[in-house]
Amino acid sequence: MSMLVVVTENVPPRLRGRLAVWLLEVRAGVYIGDTSKRIREMIWEQIDALAEEGNVVMAWATNTESGFDFQTYGDNRRIPVDLDGLRLVSFLPVKDQ
């Protein structure tokens, strides 16, 4: 079991409802829980199937040097990068409006 955090933006209500079955929604679109790897993977399958045009980040505790890992779904200015085995976040430039 490990701590899991899921942050959603602009996802359909049915996904939010599905996440609330396994995790506690502590703020709008922010879910936390203590889950096994199998449940975490099943939750990600639901995100992949139901998030549509929204975006999601899922982070969980691991025994890596940083103490956590994460994955993302959908378009966002923040994109994950791997730097010598360390997961970091890079920012894309702001689009002209």
Automatic annotation (TrEMBL):
Pfam families in the cross-refs: Cas_Cas2CT1978
InterPro entries: CRISPR-assoc_prot_Cas2_sub (IPR010152)
NCBIfam families: cas_CT1978
Name of the featured protein: CRISPR-associated protein, Cas2
Organism of derivation: Marinobacterium lacunae
